[in-house]
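Annual report, structural modelling task.

Input specification for the FE2/S2 (inorganic) cluster complex:
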Amino acid sequence: MSYKVDVQPSGQVFEVAEDQTLLEAALAEGMMLRHSCREGTCGTCKGKVLAGQVDHADSDLEVLTQAERDEGFALFCRAKACSDLQIHAPEVTELKGISIQKTAARVGSIDRISDDVAIVRLNLPPTMPFNYFPGQYAEVILKDGSRRSYSMATVPGESNQLEWHIRNTGGTFSRFVYDDLKEKTLLRLEGPFGTFYLRDTDKPMVFVASGTGFAPIKALLEQLAAQNNTRPVSMYWGGRQLKDLYMHQWVVDFAKNHDWLTYTPVLSEVADGDIWDGATGYVHHQVLSDFSDLSGYEVYACGNPLMVDSARKDFTEQRGLDEENFFADAFV
Ligand code: FES
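The model returned the following structure:
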């Protein structure tokens, strides 16, 4: 049994099977609705059901409250159709030239660039070009079927190689990567996913990253450079100590070569022995202190969920940022 979903205001239509979520069905038909985690935890895919019935399945009441359900909202990455539907999704991106695929990838190199971050480069089969929007992520599928998500840190290229920045959080997979992963190891991947990609406007932009949230921001910077960008970009990268900004010098050099970029590194716990006369504190507080008005801006934020949530709240409530212009990927 399948149902029709009419997406407003674009008028696009897709079919959803009874056992598919609305997001899965849209992606399968090459239509990308706004999303990030695909697990019902970040709230990015929340939208209104204008007509018809949905089953909220295992949507968490913390992410989709009872009041929101009563008003007709749903998490499109969890909800399943119980009838034909009309939904409101203001942004629908066509996946032109991009297909979500499952593929094998072989570890090409591992660069343990700091005491807890490894840069892993993966080689994909040359016969299966893996195209994506810079800023998107892919998932590694582990033996037990569980998945981990990592953003691509470069633009897609002819070499069909992906670059991931993996921090050893102490979890089984990230610890294995940091301590034991070897070149030539075969991994299973699925992707690309996520709507953390550059919007084609002329608005100035603020990039905010914490820790390895820098990875997709690096891909965006490379994309802008390749496009001979002229939009001003103010980039902030926060870590506890200088060693957490594991490609700090790369960004310093990149900013020297691209006059549209200003770079502000921010440390929250300057270590004894660090010579640091730069910004200190929380990274999004530095943005608040540098900008009195963000109403004409786009903000792209990636990093820990606390930083991303605080940035979204403070930038919209205190600096007039339009929530529609806040784009985020939170590691969840
Ligand atoms: Fe649906 Fe995160 S809650 S994409």
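The chain has a mean pLDDT of 95.
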